[in-house]
Amino acid sequence: MLSKFMGGSDRPQHLLLNRIVAVIITAADIALTQNPVGLITGLACLLMEWWATPDRDIEHKRGQRFGHRWWLIYEWFIPNHRHPLSHSLLLGLPLRLLWGTWPLLLMYLSQDPLWEILQTPWMVRVLLGAIASDCCHYALDGYWPHQMLLGK
Length: 152
Ligand SMILES: [Zn+2]
What we know:
The protein is mainly α. The chain has helices spanning about 1-5, 10-35, 40-50, 60, 70-75, 90-110, 115-120, 120-140, 145-150. The two termini are about 15 Å apart. Zinc ion binds near residues 54, 82 and 141.
């Protein structure tokens, strides 16, 4: 599968695939919309794998990287590695987005209601980038497309 083609499914392969996908979706967004704001889609894809990767569910094995203690708290609530609470689009992605950004979210919520934030054009791009990032992560972990929504 994809992990054989990429030479494994460890951190270096996840980062390489994420960068390739980020460039592709940035180029596609800019080509389709004729707007450089498409850079947000690719940037969101890169940031998702860097900051809120599904593998934060094994944070204790990842070492003292930026945000290590922050994500150790998240890990306590995930029953096991690749649980749907970390490795699924429907549960894992929203949970990691909320845990990874809740201070920023609170700052925005003090100014605007959540519904208005979700309707901003850049938020759609952030979500698309995050979904693209997670899908390539799951694919490298051996998930088939029908397993990505709810996990294995
Ligand atoms: Zn994973």
